[in-house]
Amino acid sequence: MVKEMDVSTIKKIGIVGCGVMGPSIAELFAIFGASSEYEIVIYDISPSQIEKAKTRMDIDFAKVSSTGLFNTSDLEVARNRIQLENDINSLADSNLIIEAVPEKLELKLEVFNQLDKLTPPSTILATNSSGLSITQIANATNRPLMCIGTHFMNPPLLMPLVEVVKGKQTSDQTVQTIVELLTNVNKRPVLVKKDIPGYVHNRLQAALFREVMYLLDEGVMEVQDLETTVKYGLGLRLPVMKVFEMVDLMGLDTIQNVLNYLYPTLNCSTSPPSFLKQMIQAGELGTKSGKGFHDYTKSDIQESMQQKEAATFQLLLMMQQYD
Ligand SMILES: NC(=O)c1ccc[n+]([C@@H]2O[C@H](COP(=O)([O-])OP(=O)(O)OC[C@H]3O[C@@H](n4cnc5c(N)ncnc54)[C@H](O)[C@@H]3O)[C@@H](O)[C@H]2O)c1
């Protein structure tokens, strides 16, 4: 019988993949787990991705330093605690490994199978998948008890929410260890008790996307007014009010009356709208091609992302007063 890891036995954290998500997850454990002095290793199959990640981490640490919330020498120690490696064997003695390779099931199965062979049977294997089945991924290993989903939001260093997703066989001890670990680094872990596609966050997001695209397609509202409706209606309420609190405030009887006539009219199509396909065929891919529902220039994107991250941080400080 393998002795399962509790939070105090996690000393070395391995991360697979240093693309968009991996480096920020590493920064999180290095900065907010400073008192635990985690050893952190990121492994990537691509040397050029490792080089890009180094530059990106320099920028991220400079941004964190500019908040004035951390001592410069502490940040330097945190930065030095992160190793970037091109050899998978560097992960072999990790107590926890978080996989952040592209969202392709076959690839994740292959990586989990490799990690299962590489590490001691007590090592917890987590996936940052956005919605693939944890149960299926865990079945590529001989330790489904110790496999779990940790779905971080982008960027993980800033965004508090992490969905902790239980596969069919994930043990309660594994869940507890991961929830405690994430809480210790200032995250807001939530438990997804059933392994369903997209987990919870992306299902909610998809429901909103489905309805706004439907309303646009039906000619009910133009893009700009849809943006205003979501932002200055629902969007303004949500940072200070919880969803079920909103239902309670409206009154459950009133809500039932409204939903009785509204539900049958909501969009429930099972495929994305055909206009989306036409936009994609026309090369309108969003920020990456400079045109989607809005138009973008390269410098706009960089500048606005930086401003948005700074604003998100301010909003977060404010929102926490309404927990
Ligand atoms: N990008 C986001 O906004 C976001 C948000 C939440 C969750 N996720 C999820 O996180 C995961 C990673 O996404 P990302 O955006 O960081 O991907 P990415 O494409 O930016 O990076 C993936 C990295 O994995 C590396 N890689 C590929 N195959 C590998 C292998 N066999 N071994 C080691 N490294 C390998 C690649 O070289 C690349 O550097 C995905 O499952 C994605 O769905 C992404």
Summary of the model, kept short:
By secondary structure, this protein is of the alpha/beta class. The chain has helices at residues 22-32, 47-66, 72-80, 105-118, 134-138, 172-184, 201-217, 223-237, 243-250, 252-262, 274-281, 298-319, and strands at residues 12-16, 39-43, 82-85, 96-99, 124-127, 147-152, 161-166, 188-192.
Give your account of this protein's structure.
The structure is a single chain. By secondary structure, the protein is of the alpha/beta class. The chain has two domains: 7-192, Rossmann fold, CATH 3.40.50; 201-322, N-(1-d-carboxylethyl)-l-norvaline Dehydrogenase, domain 2. The protein has helices spanning 22-32, 47-66, 72-80, 105-118, 134-138, 172-184, 201-217, 223-237, 243-250, 252-262, 274-281, 298-319, and strands at residues 12-16, 39-43, 82-85, 96-99, 124-127, 147-152, 161-166, 188-192. It has an eight-stranded mixed β-sheet with strand order 3-2-1-4-5-6-7-8, sandwiched between helices. Strand 1, helix 1 and strand 2 form a beta-alpha-beta unit. The structure holds nicotinamide-adenine-dinucleotide (NAD).
Present the secondary structure layout.
Blueprint: E1 12-16, H1 22-32, E2 39-43, H2 47-66, H3 72-80, E3 82-85, E4 96-99, H4 105-118, E5 124-127, H5 134-138, E6 147-152, E7 161-166, H6 172-184, E8 188-192, H7 201-217, H8 223-237, H9 243-250, H10 252-262, H11 274-281, H12 298-319
Parallel strand pairs: 1-2, 1-4, 2-3, 4-5, 5-6, 7-8
Antiparallel strand pairs: 6-7
Helix pairs in contact: 9-10
This protein binds nicotinamide-adenine-dinucleotide (NAD).
Nicotinamide-adenine-dinucleotide binds at residues 16-22, 44-46, 49, 100-103, 107, 111, 128-130, 152, 154.
